[in-house]
């Protein structure tokens, strides 16, 4: 075949080759692969009335944003946590796109989770973060505080149809690197992009009245524990990649994927509170590729499960499990 017909055919073939694999990949990984199309906007707090039900939602938002004020070491209600706020890791009270938001909680819980090997409801999931991320204690399901937190989280996701995980929910996993993440390179990135706020020892900076942090700690005794989600490299790198430095803008650029992996490796190589839940992972084959503690159902080392490269581990898995 010659002439314009051939050109059209060649273009059509090139387009077919290009379009098909792109569609199949559907993003860098993580939860984006099984998302149905749904555009989510956080509801506006101005919609809230002064009814008792809406007052509970408001209180829940306040607890997420200022957890330490109520439940920190000097908390007004009780001393339950390490002084961090839920909002430190769930930005804008859990409403920011790719800022670890809560848009998919109301729509997907209760759900089966590999870590516990059980079906978990939202109360259990919130208590996971209290115990692991905030190095604290579980709240009573019936407590006013727990009821308020869950009322708020359900309100945030109230428009999301059952079973749908909106785009931008949770944490976006950066594309895997071919090599292991490197804490040595990460130390330089930390010095350049993070230390001015989070401090030379990752200790953070308290706010003026000492009720919480202006800049939360990244390691050390007041930080998240070894049982927390952020202790997994994909979670920390993904959170940092999309959200840090906190004042990132056109002039203060965000990190590349590679920089996010390396700085995450540096942070998670530092000491932090150790917490062990013996009942975790009843089926070790369900551990995510980046779960840093053995035993494993595969033959990769703890070192590789902690720092990567994760690609070869992923190849041995039937399904993607980042959560
Ligand atoms: C140190 C960081 C950190 C803090 C502080 C924290 N969380 Fe989390 N939270 C995480 C991470 C990481 C995940 C898992 C995200 C993922 O795997 O995509 C998570 C997940 C969740 C989920 C499940 C979201 C989903 O879509 O499945 C809920 C609900 C939640 N957190 C509530 C809370 C509440 C309430 C607080 C405060 C009491 C809190 N978190 C404090 C890091 C944190
Ligand atoms: C301009 C100040 C600033 C810079 C620079 C900055 N952060 Fe943050 N970071 C914050 C603030 C503020 C929060 C809490 C956000 C909130 O509560 O709304 C935070 C939260 C975090 C969290 C989750 C909470 C925790 O303490 O575990 C991580 C992880 C984090 N930052 C990592 C980094 C990394 C890595 C860098 C460098 C690439 C960085 N940050 C640079 C201000 C900063």
UniProtKB/TrEMBL annotation:
The chain crosses the membrane at residues 6-22. The keyword Transferase does not apply. Residues 181-271 form the Cytochrome c domain. SUPFAM superfamilies: Cytochrome c. One of its GO terms (molecular function) is heme binding. The keyword Metal-binding applies. Keywords: Heme, Iron, Membrane, Metal-binding, Transmembrane, Transmembrane helix. This is Cytochrome C. It comes from Niabella soli DSM 19437.
């Amino acid at each position: 075949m010659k002439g314009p017909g051939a050109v059209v055919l060649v273009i059509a073939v090139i387009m077919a080759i290009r379009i098909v694999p792109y569609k199949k990949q559907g993003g860098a990984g993580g939860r984006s692969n099984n998302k149905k199309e749904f555009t989510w906007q956080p509801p506006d707090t101005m919609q809230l009335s002064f009814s008792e039900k809406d007052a509970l939602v408001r209180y829940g938002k306040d607890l997420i944003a200022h957890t330490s004020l109520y439940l920190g070491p000097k908390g007004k209600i009780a001393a339950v946590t390490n002084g961090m706020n839920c909002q430190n890791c769930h930005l804008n009270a859990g409403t920011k796109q790719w800022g670890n938001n809560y848009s998919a909680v109301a729509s997907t819980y209760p759900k089966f989770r590999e870590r516990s090997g059980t079906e978990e409801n939202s109360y259990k999931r919130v208590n996971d973060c209290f115990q692991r991320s905030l190095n604290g204690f579980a709240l009573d399901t019936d407590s006013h505080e727990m009821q308020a937190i869950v009322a708020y989280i359900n309100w945030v996701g109230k428009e999301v149809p059952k079973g749908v995980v909106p785009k931008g929910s949770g944490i976006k996993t950066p594309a895997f690197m071919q090599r292991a993440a490197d804490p040595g390179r990460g130390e330089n990135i930390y010095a350049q992009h993070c230390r001015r706020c989070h401090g030379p020892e990752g200790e953070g900076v308290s706010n003026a009245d000492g009720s919480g942090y202006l800049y939360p700690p990244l390691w050390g005794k007041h930080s998240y524990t070894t049982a927390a989600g952020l202790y997994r490299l994909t979670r920390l790198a993904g959170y940092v990649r999309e959200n840090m430095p906190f004042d990132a803008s056109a002039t203060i650029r965000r990190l590349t994927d590679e920089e996010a992996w390396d700085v995450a490796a540096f942070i998670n190589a530092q000491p932090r509170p150790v917490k062990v839940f013996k009942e975790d992972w009843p089926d070790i084959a369900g551990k995510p590729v980046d779960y840093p503690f053995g035993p494993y159902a595969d033959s990769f080392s703890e070192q590789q499960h902690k720092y990567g490269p994760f690609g070869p581990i992923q190849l041995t898995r039937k399904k993607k499990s980042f959560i």
